[in-house]
Design goal:
Beta-galactosidase, Chain A, domain 5; ten-stranded antiparallel β-sheet; four-stranded antiparallel β-sheet; 25 strands; mainly beta
Length: 284
């Protein structure tokens, strides 16, 4: 793995080549943040399989990001026949009736002590793109910056989303401060009162959980604070872009809030965006 570090935190990122066994068709392979270690509090992130050291690539771990190749209803966006492109992943195809990476993209990596830049150009299914990912550690703030450039002669229409996995306490407790304009559908598996989200009940293990789309947040930027069992002020998570939708999800090991944005890039157009994670001080 690759690492960034200062006197407070260490950030582990997957190496797109050395750690290829942890990667799959779902998450961007460059800038994949696997774990953040606090020098006092220990590891701060989780995943759908908890402390499993080698989780299934589809499940992932840490703070992955993804370019979604099809709509929630199943409409394909970046495919021609049985060939597709996943920006930041590579060429997709079908292997034994399963979507798989048939040709991973190659990343140029410029790594420094507190900053790493990943850059790739690749093409498939009649599309071509350049993806740049920069991950930077500044004190207790971790920034993930992305740029996508459409190198095709046709428009690229698809979604990008972050899928962070925040750790829960031993009793799977959770407290999230959300924008007050957010709302939930009935029987969502969560409670939302006074701007604070909590689970409706305790969830146990990997396969027991809840998933729902947040209402009231489309067209706004995300700013929320996720409580953490070992950080006094939790983790503040923000985006600099407005949301096209925002699912939330949890099981017995992790909680995730997923800011989505819809990208419509004409030939030659690009989009830049940023995620910021501010880690609170270790709890006394």
């Amino acid at each position: 793995m690759l690492s960034l570090a200062n006197d407070s935190l260490r950030v582990d990122l997957l190496d797109p080549v050395a750690d290829i066994s942890r990667l799959g068709p779902r998450f961007c392979s460059g800038g994949f943040i696997w774990q953040v270690h606090d020098h006092v509090a220990g590891p701060l992130l989780s995943g759908p399989e908890g402390v499993e050291p080698n989780p299934e690539p589809f499940n992932g771990h840490g703070l992955p990001e993804s370019f979604r190749d099809r709509s929630r209803a199943g409409q394909k966006w970046l495919w021609q026949g049985d060939e597709g492109i996943a920006p930041g992943v590579g060429k997709l195809g079908r292997v034994d009736e399963t979507i798989a990476v048939v040709e991973p993209c190659f990343w140029h990596i410029d790594a420094q002590s507190t900053r790493v830049e990943f850059r790739t150009r690749h093409q498939a299914a009649g599309y071509a793109c350049e993806v740049t990912r920069i991950v930077e550690l500044d004190g207790r703030v971790l920034r993930s910056q992305s740029r996508l450039l459409n190198l095709s002669d046709q428009p690229m229409h698809f979604e990008w989303f972050a899928h962070p996995f925040f750790a829960l306490g031993e009793n799977a407790s959770l407290r999230v401060e959300l924008p007050r304009n957010a709302s939930l559908s009935p029987d969502s598996g969560f409670e939302f009162n006074g701007g604070v989200l909590t689970p409706s009940r305790e969830y146990i293990g990997k396969d027991d959980g809840a998933f729902v789309l947040l209402d009231g947040v489309t067209g706004t930027k995300l700013e929320c604070t996720i409580g953490h069992p070992r950080l006094s002020d939790g983790i503040k998570f923000t985006t600099n872009f407005v949301l096209s939708e925002c699912p939330i999800w949890m099981n017995g090991f992790t909680f995730s809030i997923e800011p989505y944005q819809l990208l419509d890039l004409t030939p030659g157009a690009h989009r830049d965006w940023q995620l910021t994670y501010e880690f609170g001080e270790p709890a006394a």
